[in-house]
Amino acid sequence: MTTNSKDWIQYSTAVLTLLSGVVLVFCSFFMKGEVLDGVLWYAGQTMIYAGSIFGVAMFIRTKSGEIRNYIDERLSGPRRPSGEEGQA
Predict the structure, then answer these.
(1) What is the separation of C-alpha 66 from the centre of its chain, rounded to a whole number of angstroms?
(2) Dist CA 86 CA 65 (whole Å)
(3) Cβ neighbours of residue 18 closer than 8 Å, sequence gap 6 or more
(4) How far is C-alpha 40 from the chain's CA centre?
């Protein structure tokens, strides 16, 4: 499975479960006039799942970018600002 399809599957399931939780809460409220405990539990679980998918993906991307930059800096040596190249 490629990274693109894996990300697409993760994001689509997170959005679908989040939407299902919101729709279930609205349906419960407008049909019964109250939101039952089970509906709130399900809505909370969908928010936890969606938050974990988006949060973990962002954390991994950020950390991998930082590690990549650190390795590039170490391999190429210190970089001087562009205005200091001609000065001795």
Answers:
(1) 17
(2) 31
(3) 46, 47, 49, 50
(4) 23
Q: What is the per-residue burial (b if ≥16 Cβ within 10 Å, else e) of 1-15?
A: eeeeeeeeeeeeebe
Identify the residue whose tokens are 């997170």: 14
Q: Do the Cβ atoms of 13 and 54 come closer than 8 Å?
A: no
Q: How long a stretch of residues is the chain?
A: 88
Please state the φ and ψ torsions of residue 79, each to the nearest 5 degrees.
-100, 135
Residue 18 · residue 50 · CB < 8 Å: yes
Tokens of 70: 């650190």
What confidence score (pLDDT) does residue 81 get? 64
pTM of the model: 0.62
21-34 pLDDT per residue, tens: 999 999 999 998 99
